Amino acid sequence: MIEMLVAQTLEPDEPELAVRDILAQLGSNPGLRRNSAGIIHCNDAFMESGVLRAICERLPFPTVGINTLLNSSSGGLTDSMLLTLSVLTSDLCSFAAGLSGSMAEEVAGPAARLYIETENLLERRPCLGLVFIPNHCRQAIGELMVQALDLASDGVPFFGTAAADYTTAFRNPKVIFNGESFADRASMILVEGPVEPRFQVYPVSLAKSIRQKAIITDARENVILQVNGMPAMDFLESLGLCQGGQILGVNAIPLSIDRSDGSDPVFRAIVDRTPEGGIVIGGLAPPGAMLGFGSMDQEHILGGVRLLSSRSGLPSRGPLLVYSCLSRNIVLGFNYTFEADHLKAGLERRRPYSFAYSAGEICPVPVRGGRWRNAFHNMSLVAASVWRRGPRPPSSRRTRPPQGHVRTARRAPGGRHSPGQSPLGPWAFPGARPCYGPLPTQCDRPPKPSEANARAPRAALIRRFGLHS
Question: Which residue among 133, 260, 398, 452 has the highest number of C-beta atoms inside a 10 angstrom radius?
């Protein structure tokens, strides 16, 4: 099983005081298990002052994470000027951490390399990936990242978030890896062991969406250029959603995109405009898709928090990771602590949890036929519960990971680390299997691309980007 230890500090300018805070709180817990990895949510100030680097240099395990507007946890504090370290620790599970190359020009290649390099550090196939990506407003990093990870991993479930910084304009979003911060790279933790992750998504409700007689006639990645043959900004103006060249309710208008391929519509935030009259959204904009608009209100947002607090279907024990889209906070009138306070009151310290605002969420969703797929979300509340599987079969043989089996695929400069639509879910991830016992087909690592039984999409991806499995 996996446990989570939480440590927090409100010292953004004093490295020694912050380090003392974090180490004292970790020392007051029962202690680290055999293997550990850390997730950090913090304000930009901790990066600029060197506090983040000072803390990570004193930790005996790798760290990943993001900067964010506000975070909270079972540690008790909720604040915008706060650093929270959530440590996943286990005797039975192993962790591997990695950092991608730059995604400024391309997403698929660096994403695939990140997964394969990190997976190669594990003995067996991972059961879960936690991924943290740079801001997606200038390009469709979120969806492209999920597509590449699906091909490279052959179906490993991924959960994570896009960096959000402290503004609604996303001027300085950063991804964290071993004390360093990056604007154009992604970081990742892969988990291997007897864990069955469960997920929950609370998106914008389709019941509150309004379809329009509108079709995307021209688009480029995540920029809608034309709708019904007219510039996208002119289309918004015709609906009263744009005045004086400015979009009303940026980041707060749920735009539904129906691909008309049998899949459910997805909601995307409108995040910006282009000088040519296009609108930038938080995901891919496929030409030919139909557009509509949704709505969110306080009751809808509170309903998602109540769902998580009620433990409806999620295990009642074990770590809980929660991310809420920053657009939900905008709908609340910038009531920064609303969701965090209600989540804290609902959980009542029953379990360790970590909450942060995001600029895009990665979480699996169920699809027809009892299957699942990884997905990138906007304007949603997502949660992952990481806990052990049920009783082992009597004949199963436990294989313990080797001592100190925590590795990183790449060291950051200066690093010192060594070894119903609403809601969707919750559900157990069918592909997650224990890495022991009589399930070698599911547990063993994916075949090498040079073998005859290598899956074609993964093999093609490896050949395309010159990767080594």
Answer: 133
Residue 405 is which amino acid? Answer: H
Instruction: Tell me the two tokens of residue 70.
Output: 């506000």
Q: Taking a C-beta distance cutoff of 8 angstroms, is the pair 96, 102 a contact?
A: no
Mean pLDDT of the region 81-89: 96
Instruction: Give 293's strand partners.
Output: 210, 255
Amino acid at 288: G
For the chain, give the mean pLDDT: 80
What gap in Å lies between CA 108 and CA 284, rounded to an integer? Answer: 14
**103-121: pLDDT as tens digits:** 988 999 999 999 999 999 9
Confidence of residue 327 (pLDDT cuts 50, 70, 90): confident
Burial 296-309 (b: 16+ CB within 10 A, else e): beeebbeebbebbb
- pTM for the model: 0.82
How far is Cα 38 from Cα 86, in angstroms, rounded to an integer? 6
DSSP 231: E
The pairing of beta strand 35-42 with beta strand 63-67: parallel
Cβ proximity of 64 and 167 under 8 Å: no
For the stretch 391-412, pLDDT in tens is: 443 433 434 444 444 555 544 4
- Confirm if 222 and 376 have CB atoms less than 8 A apart: no
Q: For 200, phi and psi rounded to 5 degrees?
A: -145, 135
**Type of residue numbered 409:** A
DSSP string, 280-295: EESS---TT-EEEE--
Residue 173's CB is within 10 A of a number of other CB atoms, namely 23
| CB of 67 closer than 8 Å to CB of 181 | yes
pLDDT digits (tens, 9 = 90+) for 357-374: 998 999 998 777 667 789
Q: Which amino acid is at 193?
A: G
For the chain, domain boundaries? 3-203+298-385, 206-293
